[in-house]
TrEMBL record:
Keywords, comma-separated and alphabetical: ATP-binding, Endoplasmic reticulum, Kinase, Membrane, Nucleotide-binding, Signal-anchor, Transferase, Transmembrane, Transmembrane helix
Function: Protein O-mannose kinase that specifically mediates phosphorylation at the 6-position of an O-mannose of the trisaccharide (N-acetylgalactosamine (GalNAc)-beta-1,3-N-acetylglucosamine (GlcNAc)-beta-1,4-mannose) to generate phosphorylated O-mannosyl trisaccharide (N-acetylgalactosamine-beta-1,3-N-acetylglucosamine-beta-1,4-(phosphate-6-)mannose). Phosphorylated O-mannosyl trisaccharide is a carbohydrate structure present in alpha-dystroglycan (DAG1), which is required for binding laminin G-like domain-containing extracellular proteins with high affinity.
Catalytic function, reaction form: 3-O-[beta-D-GalNAc-(1->3)-beta-D-GlcNAc-(1->4)-alpha-D-Man]-L-Thr-[protein] + ATP = 3-O-[beta-D-GalNAc-(1->3)-beta-D-GlcNAc-(1->4)-(O-6-P-alpha-D-Man)]-Thr-[protein] + ADP + H(+)
Xref: Pfam families: PIP49_C (PF12260)
Molecular function GO terms recorded: ATP binding; carbohydrate kinase activity; protein kinase activity
Membrane topology classification: Single-pass type II membrane protein
A biological-process GO annotation: protein O-linked glycosylation
Name used for this protein in its record: Protein O-mannose kinase
Cell location: Endoplasmic reticulum membrane
Residues annotated as domain Protein kinase: 1-244
Record-level GO cellular component terms: endoplasmic reticulum membrane
EC number: 2.7.1.183
InterPro entries per the UniProt record, alphabetical: FAM69_kinase_dom (IPR022049), Kinase-like_dom_sf (IPR011009), POMK (IPR039318), Prot_kinase_dom (IPR000719)
Length: 244
């Protein structure tokens, strides 16, 4: 990915160099085109063959948030309000993906915390937009359409229980991994938000107000976890209570 100028606009220029990733690249472009009418998705400037131009966000990916907010230029924004707004923006992005015009979409490239955050960009006004869409997969519980994001063995901790190898004393076989739905995204939200909130004054107050719903998010039974709709409403309630 390069910084480039196109018709006097600064853009992010991506060029596919490894043809083995051609399918992922074109999936990314296709999803970008279909989801362009949302403020939660990075703006597509254009694409041609193996080249992609998107809106440039100088603050970069969300996994750099600690460095950004500690920097001289942005340290004045390193407060609980900014960090909660980032967290709310992240939940809004997940809510959009789960209710998108092309179906319920799951972010499959989220097997550890910083990798998850690297899929999102921070905007100039400290919101979060989805940037990497190549690993989005559709689920539809009504139609019994479920997914397996990766057919490899993952370590417990960040990923949801249903993504793990369930047969403790048997040799791993990716073809026997269970299928699951969008509730795997919900499981990860508390850990992402905990990172975004950081350790600034007031962040523990926010955590206390989110404690109950976050505990529900990490229920081992996916069916008992709240939907993105319910979760977003709870975040808005906390926002209105703490940051009127």
């Amino acid at each position: 990915v390069y910084l480039a100028t196109w018709r006097d606009y600064t853009v992010a220029y991506s060029n596919l160099t490894k043809m083995g990733y051609r399918r992922d690249f074109h999936n990314d472009v296709e999803k970008l085109r279909k989801l362009q009418h949302s403020s939660h998705i990075v703006t597509l400037v254009g694409s041609c063959n193996t080249t992609l131009l998107t809106e440039y966000h100088r603050l970069g990916p969300a996994n750099h948030i600690k460095t950004i907010l500690k920097s001289k230029n942005f340290s004045k924004f390193n407060d609980v309000r900014t960090r909660f707004n980032l967290s709310l923006s992240f939940v809004e992005a997940i809510h959009f993906l789960h209710n998108s015009p092309i179906g319920t979409l799951v972010m499959c490239d989220q097997h550890h915390l910083l990798k998850t955050l690297s899929q999102y960009l921070i905007t100039e006004d400290f919101n979060i937009v989805v940037n990497d869409l190549d690993s989005l997969k559709e689920v539809n519980s009504t139609a019994q359409l479920f997914i397996r994001c990766r057919q490899r063995q993952l370590r417990p901790g960040f990923v949801s229980p249903e993504e793990l190898w369930p047969f403790e004393n048997e040799t791993f076989d990716g073809s026997r991994l269970p299928y699951y739905d969008e509730k795997t995204d919900i499981w990860k939200i508390p850990n992402v938000v905990n990172y975004l909130l950081g350790k600034v004054n007031g962040s523990d107050v926010v955590r206390s107000h989110l404690f109950k719903v976050h505990r529900q998010c990490q229920n081992r039974d996916p069916k008992q976890r709240p939907s993105a709709n319910v979760l977003l409403e709870e975040y808005k309630r906390v926002r209105d209570l703490l940051f009127p």
